[in-house]
Fold this protein.
Amino acid sequence: MNPDVTIVMYHYVRDYQNTKYPDIKGMDVRTFEKQVQYLKNNYNVISMDELVDAIQNGASIDEHSAVLTFDDAYSDHYLYVYPILKKYGVKGAFYVPTGILQDKKVLDVNKIHYILASASHETILQELMLLLDRYRDMYNLETIENYFEKYAHANRWDPEEIIFIKRMLQKGLDQEVRMKITDELFQKFVGQPEEEFSKELYLSTEQILEMQNNGMHFGPHTHDHVWLDSLMKEVQKDQMKKSLHYLKEIGVNLDRWTMCYPYGGYNEDTLTLMEEMGCSAAVTVEPKKFRLNDVNKFELPRLDCNDIEW
Ligand SMILES: [Zn+2]
């Protein structure tokens, strides 16, 4: 038997009728509940542990299985997701970029979301251009026109200004100046101290343990939410060791841990590392369902919750 499995990926799930940031892109909690009902009615929703058991030990799972996964350890997952999963008897898998919890920081990728949700794109773009001018000599930056040419390409979700801002702050600039500019934009437009914001945005260790005690699965998402495929093997290993160490320290059960690659980024070194470090399975962002026996357990595809047909 070779059952088909759908792993579903969620990020922000929140109450959009009561939020300071309606422009943060995510799923409303009411839609989420309906989707869970739909999945329960149309799939055999199983836990990550059951999937791992099927992969490692050949335990049988039903045709048309689904596993729900949640990235980035948002407090949303405790406030909105967890009560619904409990209500429907579903066990989800949650992936934690541990550095943010340890250092009370906010991920750059989240800073970018909140900057974009806090002002008009014209205003942010203007400020970004001012900052590029300010740091041009110090960091040997290119002209605005050059950057625009390289990065301002609209896609199916966003117009060119937004893509430009995102690309510049994600990868377009070198790390040091990129972090500096991102922090300045975050302070200007979001205006909340990073430590305080981090506490509100992410799960606390108490919340993680409570969820684990009620059947939820937790795994590493690297320490600093890095693109693993851009790093040397030793640096990747360091990211994994730190992340696992932190999870172990706070009491997460790592007997059969699974991994989630940030941005879906991994390479051959990553796959070797997963084997060496005793990982049970790992999820990517390759958007498709799969047949249990036809996949590499360290390259499990995953569909975004918005791409599920329902
Ligand atoms: Zn992530």
